[in-house]
Protein 1
Amino acid sequence: MIEISALQSPLKNQLAITGSKSESNRLLLLNKLFNQVLTLENVSNSEDSQLMQKALANETDLIDIHHAGTAMRFLTAYFSIQEGRTITITGSARMKQRPIKVLVDALNQLGAEITYAENEGFPPLKIVGKKITTNSITIPSNISSQYITALSLIGTKLENGLTITLDGKIISVPYIQMTIELLNRVGIKAIFEENTITIPFTENIQSEKLQVESDWSSASYYYSLIALSKESEITISTYFENSLQGDSALQNIYAEHFGVISTFKDGSLTLKNNPAFSLENRIELDLINTPDIAQTIAATCVGLKAKCLLTGLETLKIKETDRLVALKNELEKFGAIITITDDSLSIDGYNAYTTVPKLETYNDHRMAMCMAPLAQIYSIRINNEMVVEKSYPTFWEDWTKLGFEIKAI
Ligand SMILES: O=C(O)C1=C[C@@H](OP(=O)(O)O)[C@@H](O)[C@H](O)C1
Ligand SMILES: C=C(OP(=O)(O)O)C(=O)O
């Protein structure tokens, strides 16, 4: 457990944040599919991307992917087309509760041979690699976009290509767009229009150098920190105005609702306070396209004692923990009055707040990181703080650089 206290205000500092975990995991898989012809720069040093790299290099028949959801889903598709190889892919206790049936059904309908090693619908999976020649599939698109990305990535290696029809509401759309844009960027003419994705079989891609942009979900904690500070400025490197990452929506969300100004210069992003900003009565946001910044936004609201209604949160309950329950439990420790439904979270007011809260992280990196900015206002304690490694291993080092005092207790 750590205790975090703010030492200096205003903040002024520069940080280098690791590459996007989402871009990295897609590019690592593509590179494996296409004989490592890409030279990747600023690849994420997150545990999830390291696990992805190790799994792709692994030649044994048992792969443990721990908490890494994207890696679990992308690798299920990858191993299902490795003819002549049989593997079992497993993960953490939580991974064994995260649904994968939609993806397994789709792959098996295409001709894969995947069975459940424990519980129907969930990892671990036994995968016997097969040649897949079927070239079209319909898949529900309202549970996780990661299933759709997984199919799109391996579609490039199916001899007849793949047409994917998305059935129902499409959630986390920017993550599907990121996949298609990355395929386009390496020269694969993938198309995503309305509810149809078309992926052509591709023999080879050109060798080229690609720079992974830094992680926008990780940037969210600095947006929150600035929103909870005054006259402060933080510069973070390797961010661009034209991002592939949907979480770059942070720029507009924090400009409009929390008074944080973003400026880009020479590949860096500077965040600072807008002195003319005033908080609205109740913040309303639909976050269906940006699920990973929902926790950050809820915690920023608590720091500002703002009321809010956050909707489009139906995917939060199947992530690293049930994030809706975790947010309610922990943010109520600051006096927030919170109501959650299956797909929303509202903060309707605040009770008087008295004690220094001891905050729990539920094995969820984003629970630890979203609450850290509250240290700018309150003295807080965070249990199991090393969960941050999943996406941002140097998080606490960076907070020390910013001037926070972090004590193990
Ligand atoms: O494709 C990706 O890289 C991701 C997609 C999103 O998941 P869902 O599509 O399950 O919402 C997101 O929450 C996750 O952190 C990363
Ligand atoms: C949901 C997340 O990751 P994953 O689904 O890849 O485990 C996340 O990083 O917030």
Note: The first helix runs from residue 21 to 33.
Protein 2
Amino acid sequence: MNRMISKSASALSRKTLSSSFAKTSVRSITTLQETLAAQVPEKQAKLAQLKKEHGSHVIGNVTIDQCIGGARSVKCMLWETSNLDAEEGIRFRGLTIPECQAVLPTYSGKTGDGEPLLESLFWLLLTGEVPTKEQADSLTAELHARSTLPAHVVPLLNSLPKQMHPMTQLSIGLMAAQTESKFSKAYADGVPKKEYHLHALEDILSVVAQLPEIAATIYRNVYFDGTVDKDLSLDYSGNFCRMLGYDDPSFDELMRLYLCIHTDHEGGNASAHATHLVGSTLSDPYLSYSGGLNALAGPLHGLANQEVLKWIQELKSKFDAEGKEVNAESITEFAWETLKAGKVIPGYGHAVLRKTDPRYTCQREFALKHIPDDPLFKLVDTIYQVMPGILKEHGKVANPYPNVDSHSGVLLWHYGFTQYQYYTVLFGVSRAVGALSQLYWDRALGLPLERPKSVTPEWLWSQVQK
Ligand SMILES: CC(=O)SCCNC(=O)CCNC(=O)[C@H](O)C(C)(C)COP(=O)(O)OP(=O)(O)OC[C@H]1O[C@@H](n2cnc3c(N)ncnc32)[C@H](O)[C@@H]1OP(=O)(O)O
Ligand SMILES: O=C([O-])CC(=O)C(=O)O
């Protein structure tokens, strides 16, 4: 990996970035800002060349099915940070999840020993380069330095009704922090377009830095006494766990895995796409990612992780009440009841994937390593044994296999994190890292306002009657 940067790029980043960390740190490593500044000119030139020389090259056709059916497989969005293969699953900057686990810096500092640091994946997504442990640690320090919330945010969160869904609260909390946006101020001050990405990066780092305290405040307010205790001697995930009220090294590791695997899933998923769309209007990263959070809060997307736990609890209480054992047979019975009622089996199916989600598989491996005898894990495993067969028999579902949401709640539950209405908030903290890494490149590459063409039903009919 190329960790070298040009002198002029380094000088540019030193001159333009206002980050307190970038100004004060001991300059023995190449910082995130310097790494990015070195990459931008070449990437801009490459994209301009692609447009100039091959702009009219056709990369696909669109059918009426795709036009009506949510644009499945329509290739119409540029995405730097990750790519999804229907069979293999996600690659973050070309690396599969096991490859990330093998090469990214961990908390212990010994690569491969434990789960990757979220900061190391953030660095990878932004730059396409595997950071050193020192670089990952420098990002930890930078995020901690930016984590202080504007004074009005916590009082606002404290004033929200406890019964308001935690995702609604998260979106409100992030929107409220937007008062500090450097991007919107720079735009209002009239900075030139070629500098947008520098100000976007300021906001992106601050949004990622501030989300854990917003999220933890919501958790502690809704379910406990509202107290949030930080530990800035830890990494991003460890500190987040302390703020949530958990102090268990095994839970810290789970959170590192959780936060890494939920970051990015190429561009077309609803939360990433919403962030990209809102950002294309030059709304700042706070507003853009609030849009992403609102998309994540839907039950066909991120909210499915709470729905999975709800489904399992309903299944258990039904069979406990009937004095029946929860086993493959009773799970099958309950699954058919769900399907016959016209409802979806949460945690199964996917718009792109056609095999078991590797994010499901790595969580299963975590469970086998850390909590093999957990009864709920065993139940989820039994569901995994029977559900693909049921969904194949049902006949409608394009992908009968589990997705990421099918496994995440069970792991949290094991550690006493049973408030499943909150689960999507954890997803929301993680997804910021992927969606906003891409937003940096959207602005660095000068991508335009997103505005596809819609058509009327009459126009579609006119096409087939020609
Ligand atoms: C992080 C994430 O967002 S991962 C996804 C999380 N969401 C869930 O787990 C919710 C359950 N799953 C689903 O609803 C779907 O599989 C989705 C939304 C994820 C993908 O939707 P699509 O791409 O439209 O799926 P697909 O092409 O297989 O849909 C065909 C039919 O099967 C149905 N179907 C798909 N998955 C399921 C499921 N898990 N249970 C029951 N029916 C399903 C669809 O509702 C659709 O029915 P319709 O023709 O009556 O409208
Ligand atoms: O890719 C999708 O459409 C949904 C998904 O799994 C994600 O966003 O993580």
Note: Residues 300-302, 304, 339, 344-351, 396-399, 403-405 surround acetyl coenzyme *A (ligand 1) (CB under 6 Å).
Protein 3
Amino acid sequence: MLEAGAIWGFTSTTMASLMFFWSMYKQFAPYHVRLYLERYFYKYLNKWFGEDMKSVHIIFPEYTGEGLTKSRAFDEIRNYLSTRSTATARRLKANESENSKSVVLSLDDNEDIVDVFQDVKVVWSLSLVNKENQSVSKEGRHLTMSFDNQYRDMITKTYLDHVLREGKEIGLKNRERKLYTNNSSTDFSSWRDGRWSNVPFNHPATFETLAMDHEKKEEIKKDLIKFSNGKDYYRKVAKPWKRGYLLFGPPGTGKSTMISAMANFLEYDVYDLELTTVRNNSELQKLMLDTKGKSIVVIEDIDCSLDLTGQGKKKDEEDEDEEDIEEKKKEAEKLKKDRVLKESNVTLSGLLNAIDGLWSACSDEKIIVFTTNFVDNLDPALIRRGRMDRHIEMSYCRFEGFKVLAKNYLDIESHDLYGEIKRLLEETDMSPADVAETLMPKSDEEDADICIKRLVKTLKEEKEKARKLAEEEEKNKAEKKEKKEKIEEEEKEKAKK
Ligand SMILES: Nc1ncnc2c1ncn2[C@@H]1O[C@H](COP(=O)(O)OP(=O)(O)OP(=O)(O)O)[C@@H](O)[C@H]1O
Ligand SMILES: [Mg+2]
């Protein structure tokens, strides 16, 4: 009886002491001491149960080369493991990386995680490299992959391929999307940041908020989905995985908005290429090579970037002899290919080469978009199918577009004046930007009714303005014709004399 009491007393005292030490250890032991002890505890536990005996270990360091470049494989594996570790790891690290949309949970230092692939167990562990061993001051880590030797072939080929591919996909999905602009080649201070500078891309435009014909919108969305899923197709038909869009239409019809909607729809980055600051063709080539996959490269107002003087329709063209115009056009056509850009030495042929030369096969999917207000001024070579695969006209606001804008700006789907607005929009050319501006409430007192009435009033005024302008033009034309006929008659009279 006494013995049982003594045993009980000893056990409970030991348990109490152990619990006391455990809570002291948890509270006061420094974090790195705990990591060290726990790491060795698990390691030896594995060894005692004989799991480690036939293992192969492969190390993936965080920094490669001289320790200055971050290893892409390391990041991709970490992305892949983040999905596994969120569910199973005991200790996670929350990273607020500047390249990701939100906090990303990943494996903590000195933590292990088990992944199972085709019934084979793979153990991953993340360790901090001793500072003494490092040639650079950066804190380095490495990931170790351990597995049974008998699966060496399958793991090093199939499994690793799968991990890197998935990790890359996850990285692209989690990344914060960027809007890149090319640095001016004369701005030396920006050189160290590379050829492109970037800001987070937060434009809120979507296809749902875009005012345009519903069918046209759906068609574009389908085309984009087909393109982004077309990796195998493009490989099969031996074409680089890229697609060109030409957006044309009057100012304020939503060309730039459409680009943002496309980028948001596909979750792509946007590279806004300012051609006038590019020095020459080779710099343009380098800029293009420096763009990543899953991106849209945009050249806005391409007609203004290219020096097309002599090719486009001039205002006084009408006054010139028709023969003269034809002659000038032919001459311009000949010179076109080697024409230089207004403020740089980029030529048209350089631009053509840059958008679909050999480089275009060097990276993953890419969309190229040109926008212009004057499609007729563009060189046919620049916009031919295959280079600009789809030509999309952004037109003045019609009733269907108006309904989208009214829903966006006023949150209404019908009104007594809709019939009148429909008729007026058919007869008047008003850009979606102008319609949107008119519909926008200017103060808290303004409700949907006031805004709709203002639109009707503005449309009527615009219609009247357009009518007067047309009348004036007609009058001017008639006057010119009369003048010309008079001169011709006078010349005939002179000739008779
Ligand atoms: N189709 C549209 N749908 C929704 N909003 C539009 C549309 N078009 C224009 N807007 C509104 O008008 C503003 C100007 O449009 P945007 O800059 O896209 O026109 P743009 O065609 O690129 O003009 P520009 O030729 O002058 O560059 C946008 O911020 C947007 O609010
Ligand atoms: Mg624009």
Note: The mean pLDDT is 81.
Protein 4
Amino acid sequence: MARRPLVAGNWKMNGVAASLGELDSLAAKVGALSAKVDVAICPPATLVGAAAARAKGTPIAIGGQDCHAKVSGAHTGDVAAEMLADAGATLVIVGHSERRTDHGESDDVVKAKAEAAWRAGLIAIICVGETEAERDGGKTLDVVGRQLDGSVPAAATAANTVVAYEPVWAIGTGRTPTEGEIVEVHSFMRQRLAARLGAEVAGGIRLLYGGSVKPGNAAVLLKLADVDGALVGGASLKAADFAPIVEAAA
Ligand SMILES: O=C[C@H](O)COP(=O)(O)O
């Protein structure tokens, strides 16, 4: 099945109002590619509304980096998926390894957040990935399989879900798995999803690779089998770095 590539930028805890000028530059650089590739930027929650307003009329979708599983309530500091949607977001990252580590998020929590995203009409980008110790211990596929089973709800479809494979040890380090290792994990993920969701649904779900994707390696990484795009951290902060990655995907 043909899957439309998606390149999503995760600004993490970076960016202030002045950073939104990067959206204008990005739109100017990649706007013409919108027929071939989906582009998204996930700024910090403080900027989601302004970013959505700024990106209106461009092909750049705006997303959140996390959401709470509930619609509303006494959850100081949290943001509901509905609030992100209200601010103009159309997608949200859930289960990023930094959330799993910094906030102790379990697969169950991530699954509930993905369902919350759908409830609000958002696409959920569900992240999975092994630590360096797990890879060194030969446990990569076990870990990724368990996270997929636990974090991806049974009602996942190609329209409401994207899965991002992000080896924890590759995030922000400049290191990436070999091409063979990425293909092995992505192919495994496709099969694992197919076993639970059916081959048709699994065949339509986009699988992104994330972890030290840069302009210099994007063309090689994005042509790999079952790699349907990228989730980009550091290189998404500047349009000059992010645009070539989008071009590589297109
Ligand atoms: O969500 C993005 C990833 O954590 C990748 O970050 P990075 O591109 O800075 O390695």
Note: The radius of gyration is 17 Å.
